[in-house]
Amino acid sequence: MSEQQNFDVIVIGAGPAGYHAAIRAAQLGLKTACIDAALGKDGKPALGGTCLRVGCVPSKALLDSSRQYYNLQHLFGEHGITTKDAKIDVGTMIGRKDKIVKQFTGGIAMLFKANKITPFYGFGQLQPGNVVTVKQHDGSTVELKATNVILAAGSDSIELPFAKFDGENIVDNVGALDFTETPKRLGVIGAGVIGLELGSVWKRLGAEVTVLEALPDFLAAADSEIAKVAAKEFKKQGLDIKLGAKVSNTEIKSKGKAKEVVVTYTDAEGEKTLTVDKLLVSVGRRAATKGLLADGTGVKLDARGMIEVDAHCHTGVNGVWAVGDCVRGPMLAHKGFEEGIAVAELIAGLPGHVNLDTIPWVIYTEPEIAWVGKTEQQLKAEGTPYKVGTFPFAAIARAVAMGEPAGLVKVIAHEETDLILGMHLVGVGVSELVHEGVLAMEFKGSADDLARICHAHPTLSEAIHDAAMAVSKRAIHKAN
Fold it and tell me: Can you quote the record's cofactor note (predicted)?
């Protein structure tokens, strides 16, 4: 082992939370190191974590490619645009996705260099006394020490004991981003974000997609009215979503030279089987904390393997912090961004805070689904008095002109104070529109505030304006 190297800050993990923490710490004049074990498809180190390599970024690239192809076949005709024998080259599509991933992982490496961050490529483990050992890919080990250590280990896909990943027939999000051809039949276990997004990609490209969801309600985390509208649109698109379907077994069988997966599940009607060519398992993610902590560090893990932290992401051990997917709160890249920055600023003696109540959620299906704040069912359960305003995109000129009239905007405000408690959207471009709600809630805005702000016409954002007006039953473009 080489001589111990000293830093002000060591970050373990270069995913969204980790690389933001490292860059902000370096900007603040702190001598910073960042450790990451991930390798790209070319076998070389690839910074950016799950999000950049095999999550947010590559999935959006495929969603956009598949949307272009789908619209060419189903929407362009309405515009008077016709084409003959449209085809999709899956290899080219995957290659485009890989190029985008490489661009952004390489971009982080350049940012590290520009900010004088020292990268270490290998597996980092926290030792007592804020010492970190790094087992590098060449088998050697280096020892580092810092005044502050930020744990940003991220998360891994949950594997079901009866549906083990083989990378070929039964896959997680990584495998579903790299199919070499469109499967004829794709099964998906879990109707969450990953299942719906990647299911949508391959459905648009011609796959017969069946989604098995164990819960009785569709998108239980979303507002029920929004979920209902989304489910209706997905059904129109041909996504077969079976609710209350609990999978108990999978079996890979040979079919000539090919293989297929037989999935056994139980619903209200009893035990059934589903035969598919590929099976995507997307039942959630767990904190990637295995092997992260040596004995005696004092850092505690909860029953789910998540690092226990306070409201400021401090572990209770002097100089040890944790951020991102390995701590409480939603497993979202942008939540990790903000936590990483906040902790770096706290270390530097500056104010740092993340409001978990205004973290936006987005599902990049078509139509998109997005929300911030509390759902109507949550407010009912709490007994909080509230009022609601909704407005459909079908009455928005821009949405109709775009050929994207599906969906609505829902604004929920407190019955007495009019403060915005939540904004829920399903429709075209709502991944961008939801931030009106985030901003309004951060500044303690009311529905009336939104209703009195001029929105350009014709734009999609007018749906937010009209929904806010509808809260007080004064929407112009709908019957109140």
Answer: Binds 1 FAD per subunit.
For the domain spanning 170-283, the CATH number is: 3.50.50.60
List Cα–Cα distances, 344 to 30, 130, 347, 349, in angstroms.
9, 16, 5, 9
DSSP per-residue string spanning 13-49: --SHHHHHHHHHHHHTT--EEEEE--B-TTSSB--SH
- Token pair, residue 473, equals 């039953």
Query: Which of 414, 457, 465, 477 is the catalytic position?
Result: 457
Superfamily per CATH, domain 5-157+286-357: FAD/NAD(P)-binding domain (3.50.50.60)
Which CATH class, in words, describes the domain spanning 367-471?
A: alpha beta
Closest CA to 310 of 359, 269, 346, 263: 346
Q: Please give the full DSSP string across 322-391, using - where no structure is assigned.
A: E-GGGSSS---HHHHHHHHHHHHHHHTTS-----GGG--EEE-SSSEEEEEE--HHHHHHHT--EEEEEE
Domain ranges of the chain: 5-157+286-357, 170-283, 367-471
Q: Which amino acid is at 10?
A: I
457 is annotated as an active-site residue: yes
Per residue in 145-192, pLDDT (tens digit) is 999 999 999 999 999 999 999 999 999 999 999 999 999 999 999 999
Q: Provide the 10 A C-beta neighbour count for residue 318.
A: 11
Same fold for the domain at 5-157+286-357 and the one at 170-283? Answer: yes
